[in-house]
Amino acid sequence: MVANERENATVQVKVRLYAGLRRYLPELSLGQSLPLQLPQGTTIGEMLDQLGIPRTETKSCFVNGIQREFSYQLKEGDDLAAFPPVAGGCGEGPTQPSIR
After folding, report:
1. Residues 58, 82: contact at Cβ < 8 Å?
2. How many CB atoms sit inside 10 A of residue 42's CB?
3. What digits encode the pLDDT tens for the residues 20-74?
4. In this structure, are residues 13 and 79 in contact, taking their beta carbons and an 8 Å threshold?
5. In whole angstroms, what is the distance from residue 69 CA to residue 27 CA?
6. Which residue from 50, 7, 6, 71 is spatially nearest to 15, judged by alpha carbons?
7. What residue ranges in the chain does DSSP mark as E strands?
8. How far apart are CA 90 and CA 36, in angstroms?
9. Calpha distance 15→38 (Å, rounded)
10. Are 10 and 75 in contact (CB under 8 A)?
């Protein structure tokens, strides 16, 4: 590949947003992915910036089922899932009301 071809090289990826992040792509239906053509070498963080999704609102990104950092360079055919911070979790639930 010559230098000019490398400069123009792109990768095709699919992006899915979950929970509160979906508001940034309201045109997508639930579970639908957004196909993107990005310049080769684009990182997850740069892709979020291009989509107008604040990095501070994105807690976890998984590429092909593996958690990745914002600095990960996306590759041809990657399937990215982005999640916001999530509240809640395990532990004792609310106490049961007493029956009198």
Report:
1. yes
2. 19
3. 999 999 998 888 999 999 999 999 999 999 999 999 999 999 999 999 999 999 9
4. yes
5. 26
6. 50
7. 10-17, 34-39, 60-63, 66-68, 79-83
8. 36
9. 12
10. no
